[in-house]
Structure formats: structure tokens, C-alpha cells
Design a protein that fits this description.
Low-confidence stretches: none
Radius of gyration: 21 Å
Order of helices and strands: EEEHEEHEHHHEHEHEEHHHEEH
CATH topology of the largest domain: Rossmann fold
Number of strands: 12
Shape: globular
Oligomer: single chain
Helix content: 25-40%
Structural class: alpha/beta
Strand content: 15-25%
Number of helices: 11
CATH class of the largest domain: Alpha Beta
Largest sheet: 8 strands, mixed
Number of domains: 2
């Protein structure tokens, strides 16, 4: 169960697993699974941003899709305001999806190319029945203003906008149904750096104005540092570290987290981190290593790491809310 709570949680994930069956190549072959997300637990406080980071294939996007039940979870709980989204009916889930929205990575692929912005916003409000029909016109114009677009944008098609403008439309569509939680799945990774900054600032303004809660999925640690309250690091389907942003960036404890942070580009040569090279390739999620999943690439690995799986536990490194799954965390912290 989740032992990383701090305050009032609007979203709590407990023992979540997401396994995908692998097609058999032989009749008598043992059934195999891709263990995309393997028994993770965490929580998100209302009005805050929890970012999920890690290499491609670590399970961060699958975690977001499982919470939304775009992929049916293999097992585990997804508690939203103490309601388990993993077990409620599709009718009940439809209502909840108005309260938990998503902003996808590709702002063009996530918008219907044949529908005007007006039709898309109207459809969302119609499905969730959140605004009376006589008030929808005013609400749609308001949404355009909120995301920094002119009112005449409502009559245009997605291909008539730039990438940054399309992502603003995606944000407007998410806001149109008055959500409490927004899952941002690589929401700025497809945009130019200058446009990324604009969208991130917009997301922060909206969070403050509407008390929104974000689950922000990204591989870009520079972006994560700008928007997060807490950061969760995943590796091969597991959580290896989760902490408040300042603690994680100032004093990372897991060797994998340290390596990720050392790779962040910087122009400040006086405070540049020593680059830590991760050798080897990411193991197969079909047959992950025993013990600690990072031991095949970790410079601190011992027999205990190879044979015994570390649990996600709180470490006292100046914070009472820093959790890490590593047998040698205390030694690493003492020598850092």
C-alpha cells in the first residue's frame, strides 16, 4: 500500500500493476507478459503537481493511461477522492472522466482534424453536461481567452494552428468540463523550447486559478524542475525514488536518479554536476532482473542487490518525505 502520503491526497495509487500479454511463438511456450508497471504505489495532494520521470519504456505513460483506464489495470487500486476507479462501472467512470482530464503529447493527433474547435468544445461539454446550452457560447469564448487565443479560433480547424496553439486548444478542451485533476502526458515535449515555456507558465497560472492537480509525465528534467512540487522516478516499471522537488534535485539518493540529473545540460560550469555514465542497456520488461532491477547497470551493486528486491522506504536526508528503493541509500548519502 501507499506509504508516500503527505497531506490530503486527491489521487492515491496502491499496488498498481499493468501487464501486457506477449503473443506466443510456439504452442507449448509459457505465457509471458510485458511488466510495464509492476506493483507501484504513490499519492498526489490536491492542488499540487507530481511529475513522473524516467527513460523511455519505464512505465510512466502507462501509469497515466492505467489511472484513466484507457488501459484496464491488471490489478491494484486507483483511488480518486476515495473512489476506486479500477472497479467502478463504465457508466460511473464516464462521469469521473469529466473530473480527470488528459493532455496528450501530440497536439495535432489528439484533435479531430475534421471538426472545428467550437464543435470539439461543445461535444466535450455536451457529453459531461457541465454547461447549459444557452451559456455554452460565452463559456467557449471565455476558454479561448483563458488559453490566450482569439474568439474567432472557434470557427477554425486544427491544421490552421501552430503546434503551441493546438496545445492551448487541448488545454481548453480539458478545462471545458471543469476537471479537478489533469494528467499531462509529455504535454510539452513536441514543442519548441520557447513555446514550452509559454505552455508551462500557462499550466501554472491555471493551477493557481482553479486549484488544479497535475500528474505531469515527462522525460525532460529541466521542464520537471520548473513545474513540479514532487518528483517520482521510475525504472523498468518500478518506483526507485520519490521526493519533494528541492530534495530530489539537491540531494538525489538513488544511483539512477543521480545519473539522470547529471545529464541535464547546463551553462553554469561552476556548478555543473559530475556526469555519471550508465553502462549497458535497459533489461527486458518481459523478464526483468531479480532483486533490484537497476543492479545490472548500477556501479554500487552487490550480491544483496542482485538477489533481494529493495522496498520503497523513507530516508532521513533532511526531509521526512523522501522515499527511495535502494539497499545502499544510506551509504550513498553519507558519501555524497
Amino acid at each position: 500500500m501507499d506509504n508516500t502520503k503527505n497531506g490530503t491526497s486527491i489521487l492515491a495509487v496502491n499496488d498498481l500493476k499493468q501487464y501486457f500479454p506477449v503473443k506466443k511463438e510456439k504452442i507449448r511456450q509459457k505465457k509471458q507478459y510485458v511488466k510495464a508497471v509492476d506493483d507501484i504505489s504513490f499519492s498526489v495532494e490536491k492542488g499540487t503537481t507530481l511529475s513522473i520521470v524516467g527513460e523511455s519504456g519505464c512505465g510512466k505513460s502507462t501509469t497515466g493511461r492505467s489511472i484513466l483506464r484507457l488501459e484496464e489495470p491488471t490489478s491494484g487500486e486507483v483511488l480518486y477522492n476515495n473512489v476506486d476507479l479500477a472497479t467502478i462501472s463504465k457508466k460511473e467512470l464516464k462521469k469521473v472522466r469529466g473530473e480527470i482530464q488528459v493532455i496528450f503529447q501530440d497536439p495535432f493527433a489528439s484533435l479531430n482534424p475534421r471538426r472545428t474547435i467550437r464543435k470539439m468544445l461543445n461535444e466535450a461539454m455536451d457529453i459531461q453536461n457541465v454547461v447549459d446550452k444557452e451559456n455554452r457560447e460565452a463559456r467557449m469564448i471565455e476558454l479561448m481567452s483563458i488559453v490566450g487565443l482569439p474568439a474567432d479560433s472557434l470557427e477554425r480547424l486544427p491544421h490552421e494552428f501552430s503546434g503551441g496553439q493546438r496545445q492551448r486548444i487541448g488545454i481548453a478542451r480539458a478545462l471545458s468540463v471543469n476537471p479537478e485533476v489533469i494528467i499531462c502526458d509529455e504535454a510539452v515535449s513536441a514543442l519548441d523550447v520557447s513555446i514550452q515555456a509559454q505552455i508551462l507558465n500557462l499550466l501554472k497560472e491555471l493551477q493557481k486559478k482553479y486549484d488544479l492537480t497535475y500528474l505531469f509525465i515527462s522525460h525532460d528534467l529541466s521542464v520537471v524542475r520548473h513545474i513540479s512540487n514532487r518528483v517520482m522516478v521510475m525504472y523498468l516499471g518500478k518506483i526507485v525514488e520519490i521526493a519533494d522537488k528541492k530534495d530530489l534535485f539537491d540531494a538525489p539518493l538513488h544511483p539512477y536518479t543521480q545519473a539522470l540529473l547529471s545529464a541535464i545540460p547546463t551553462t553554469d560550469l561552476d556548478h555543473k554536476r559530475k556526469e555519471i555514465e550508465i553502462k549497458g542497456d535497459v533489461p527486458s520488461p518481459i523478464n526483468p532482473p531479480s532483486g533490484c532491477r537497476f543492479h545490472t547497470r548500477c556501479p554500487f551493486a552487490t550480491d544483496k542487490c542482485r538477489n533481494e528486491e529493495p522496498q520503497l522506504e523513507m530516508k532521513m536526508n533532511g526531509s521526512d518525505n523522501h522515499f527511495i528503493a535502494c539497499h545502499h541509500a544510506d551509504e550513498i548519502y553519507a558519501n555524497s
